[in-house]
Amino acid sequence: MFKGSHPVTIDAKGRIAIPASYRQSLIDDCAGRLVITRHWDGCLLIYPATEFQSFESQLLAKGSLNPKVRDIQRFFIGNARDVDMDRQGRMLLPSNLRAAAHLESKAVLSGIGNLFELWDESQFNDRAADTAAALADDAANGDLPDVLMDISL
Q1: Which among 63, 61, 41 is positioned nearest to 53, based on CA atoms?
Q2: Residue 35 near residue 83, CB atoms below 8 Å
């Protein structure tokens, strides 16, 4: 399980280094093979290859007769790229995906359970501040989603 937010630098070749604390588990679990795709929130999603295969299978199992399902399949699977970590734990971010997420040199790699999100640093910070304020308001007003009501902090 991945958790925490880690500042990363995108080098001149378009690579990021996976934090050292995750490298060995990624080598053990998926031989350093990862899949990167877009997310409509404006970030990139980075999955261990085995996790993406599971997600892809679930998404494809929904069929393709519904145009909205087809659009979602096209968005996630059509934008997906296979990448491998190198010996230094770096991975190359495809230029089209870097451009889609507005990634320049400073980014944040955020662990979200079975995958990572990769954000432009300023977008991540702005979104985190906005989310914290909105969640505080929602909690104060009792407007949290019902699915969260049986979880205690």
Answers
A1: 61
A2: yes
- In the chain, beta strands by DSSP E: 2-9, 15-17, 33-38, 44-48, 81-84, 90-92, 106-113, 115-120
Q: How far apart are CA 121 and CA 104, in angstroms?
A: 9
CA–CA separation, 99 vs 86, rounded Å?
A: 22
Q: Is the pLDDT of residue 148 over 90?
A: no
Token pair 């050292």 is at which residue? 20
Instruction: State the pLDDT confidence band at 103, using cuts at 50, 70 and 90.
Output: very high
CB atoms within 10 A of CB 77: 15
What is the number of other CB atoms lying within 10 angstroms of the CB of residue 31? 13
106: closest CA among 2, 5, 1? 5
Closest by CA position to 5, among listed 133, 87, 107, 138: 107
Question: What confidence score (pLDDT) does residue 117 get?
Answer: 98
pLDDT score for 22: 95
Alpha carbon separation from 81 to 3, 78, 93, 97, 113 (Å, rounded): 23, 9, 9, 9, 20
